[in-house]
Amino acid sequence: GRYANARGSEPTWTPRAMRSLAEAEPSVFWLDDRSAPPALPSLVGAVEADLVVVGGGYTGLWTALHAKEADPDRDVTLVEAATVGWAASGRNGGFCASSLTHGEANGLDRFPDEFDTLERLGRENLDGIEATITKHGIDAEFERTGELDIAVEDWQVDELNEFARLLAEHGTDPVLLDREQTQALVHSPTYLASRYDADGVALVHPAKLAWGLRQACLDLGVRIYEHTEVTKITSDGAGLALRCPFGSIRGRQVALATNAFTNLLRRLGNYIVPVYDYVLVTEPLSPEQQDAVGWEGRQGLADLGNQFHYYRLTADNRILWGGYD
Fold first, then answer.
1. What DSSP character marks residue 4?
2. Distance (Å, rounded) from C-alpha 298 to C-alpha 273?
């Protein structure tokens, strides 16, 4: 959609690209949903808790949920600076993968000795996510349809074959599909081959998952305060004191689940680099458009480039695709 001008300075948008974006809405697709729950009250005054969880994304929500399930008498409080699921947990492609190493190839390269254990734990983790969704009746549009890792360049076909050989050495029986088999699943002439991971990836509505976990926590008695930023944590005898704009919390234990927002423990800044990409979402496909695309298995799709692109269908049959700028 963009090309550089003759001097190689700022790119110029083509008329066709401009027209294609004329009716686009620059918003977060998942969070802009009519099922979004109303915000919970902010913390006002002083409270105490056995465990204080800072951050209302997936990590914080699951920490609070597991802590309460493990000990129903434990007093658990969760605070979120904005609203639950507002940041990365509500702004992603909705691929729920079993890999703990951001892909098996990455795991084989960096953790070869631990790879088998990491893969086993990752599968158990994905099973646990599905079990939690089922147990608490969370309507997160969870579809365990798997993923196609797709070669779109000749060199990627060779890389795919080598990757399959390495997986076989670790006891995995990878399913490789040639050009014709891949295009039979999704009708794209650019697809040259693929690996089909039928069970290791699920699709999910990210925001609905966060909101469902929020409700599960509330049902178990977790106190949740939204629009409550923790501005400072200090030691306080046998516990910790958390300062907020309109109140404070004294906690025996604190779990920081703040992802890239590391200011409460500044030394973490040396270990975390925020990474982002963009997604676009179409209008719902018509039956004729769905027939033209194929994709009856509703698998997640991702190409094999280092700065890869990914594609998926939503519950109402829109195509969501994303990748790095």
1. E
2. 32
Give the predicted TM-score (pTM) of the model: 0.92
HSE, CB side, 13 Å, CA atoms: give it for residue 47: 19
Q: What are the structure tokens assigned to 249, written together?
A: 């919390």
* SS (HEC) of 187-254: CCCCCCEEEEECCCEEECCHHHHHHHHHHHHHHCCCEEECCCCCCEEEEECCEEEEEECCEEEEEEEE
Q: Phi and psi dihedrals of 74, rounded to 5?
A: -70, 130
Dihedral over alpha carbons 126, 128, 129, 133 (to 10 degrees): 140
User: In 3D, which of 206, 240, 218, 230 has the Cα closest to residue 65?
Assistant: 218
Give the per-residue pLDDT at 16.
85
CA distance 226 to 56: 8
**How many CB atoms are closer than 10 A to CB 8?**
7
State the CB neighbour count (10 A cutoff) for residue 115. Answer: 18
Residue 276: count other Cβ atoms within 10 Å of its Cβ: 10
Low-confidence ranges of the chain (pLDDT < 50): 1-8
Type of residue at 296: E
Buried b (16+ CB within 10 A) or exposed e, 224-256: bbbbbbbeebeeeeebbbbebeebbbbbbebbb
The number of angstroms, rounded, from the C-alpha of 241 to the middle of its chain's C-alpha atoms is: 31
